[in-house]
Amino acid sequence: MPNIFLKDEALAKSPAIVGFEIARFIKASGKDRVSIFDVVEQFKRKPWFSPNSFVYGITFLYAVGLIEFQEPYLVASNAD
What percent of the chain has pLDDT over 70? Predict the structure, then answer.
């Protein structure tokens, strides 16, 4: 299994940074839940975007309790 965190990985593609970008987009949308398709559409032309970095980013957000999944939506957790 490949490592999620690599020392020679581009910092912009790290799960924490990608997760931050996704969380910032969800917050800026003003909604509690956002379609995963809208999120991908927003970021697919960014230089850091790749399917792996995106999946690791949302997995990071889920692991730290910032989002939940309600297919096909990413739902912001109500933790303050």
Answer: 85
